[in-house]
Amino acid sequence: MTETTNIPTGSPNNSPLTPKWFSEHSAEIFSYKNTIVYGARRYIYREFAQAAEELLPAIR
Questions:
Q1: Quick count: other Cβ atoms within 10 Å of Cβ 15?
Q2: Whole-structure pTM value
């Protein structure tokens, strides 16, 4: 039995919800809000997404 869906290719509902997607999306929407607070150090979403993107080549 073949399952069919009515979601067209390229639909906004057809995008993968990955950690990378959430990071990029959060950086776009909440770019200047705090995401991590550790003692005196604070990371905003944009900084966190940037740091994560820089680490990706190291783990591939």
A1: 10
A2: 0.63
